[in-house]
Design a protein that fits this description.
The complex is a heterodimer of chains A (196) and B (76). By secondary structure, chain A is mainly alpha-helical. Helices cover 68% and strands 0% of the residues of chain A. Chain B is globular. The chains are: A mainly alpha (196), B alpha+beta (76).
Chain lengths: 196, 76
């Protein structure tokens, strides 16, 4: 009897993410994955129906980790400054901890192969939506369209993370994102967003 | 929780065309022992995957080969 083995499934998932990050979605087939993960194709089919199912399951798994990590200690009722700073710290920590996840997500979002309607609205988006609306309701924030809010609130952070991952900035200088530098950028951002 | 005894059976086939897959699907859909099935036609082995709690691989092979297709168990 064929039995599911969670550690085997996890090993297959990790290997698949690694292959997608290196070669893109086109580089992944069940056969190639089996070879790379050192299991038989039959073993992969125990856990996944086909390539599309595998990709969707990978997305759902990664999305769950992302929500857990970024919502750690977070509450949508938090005040704008406190909540946003926690988001910055959590998101940076997530990027450092799971660099491959980020690459996977970028590929996934841009892929026409994926059946996006299988993917449900998640807890993360809900929490972030509530956080934004609470800040508006409490009159803590200038009135901005949500896209403009997002660009100001997180754009600088993601730019700094990009430099951090590249280990250098646009000028070619060495760059490491320290908490101090993150705080400098954050102080400018919060000043731009706050009403008073 | 679902029935934990549901087993996954995996086969290599030569079911290439959509019409062939529909042909076989009619039999599978009528069989109450089969919980779900699919054929991965993107894969070189045209893998037939069946979730069932009561069927043996031999029974599946019998059903498929009777319709004139190749079907053999994919070894683990």
């Amino acid at each position: 009897m064929r039995l599911r083995d969670e550690s085997k499934e996890a090993a297959i998932r990790d290997k698949a993410i690694e292959m997608i990050v290196l070669e893109g979605f086109d580089g992944l087939s069940m056969q190639k994955l089996a070879k790379a993960a050192n299991v038989s194709p039959a073993t992969i089919y125990l856990y996944f129906k086909n390539r599309e199912d595998l990709l969707n399951q990978l997305y759902i798994g990664i999305d769950k980790v992302f929500a857990e990590e970024t919502l750690k200690d977070f509450n949508p009722e938090m005040h704008l400054e406190e909540g946003l700073w926690l988001q910055w710290r959590n998101r940076f920590a997530y990027h450092v901890k799971y660099p491959q996840h980020i690459h996977f997500m970028e590929q996934f979002r841009n892929s026409p192969l994926i059946n996006h309607k299988d993917i449900k609205e998640n807890v993360f988006k809900q929490a972030m939506g509530n956080f934004f609306r609470n800040a508006v309701k409490r009159n803590e924030m200038k009135e901005l369209p949500v896209e403009v809010f997002w660009a100001i609130a997180y754009g600088p952070l993601y730019t700094l993370i990009k430099f951090h991952n590249a280990k250098k900035s646009l000028t070619g200088n060495k760059f490491v994102l320290t908490e101090q530098k993150m705080k400098q950028a954050f102080d400018a951002v919060i000043k731009a967003l706050k009403k008073h | 929780m679902e029935d934990v005894r549901i087993e996954v059976l995996v086969f290599r086939t030569d079911i290439i065309e959509k019409a062939d897959s529909e042909n076989i699907g009619q039999i599978f859909n009528d069989d109450s022992r089969i919980k779900t099935w699919n054929i991965d036609q993107e894969d070189i082995d045209k893998v037939l995957r069946i979730e069932s709690s009561e069927m043996s691989p031999a029974e599946v092979i019998n059903m498929v080969t009777r319709l004139g297709y190749i079907c053999e168990e994919l070894p683990e």
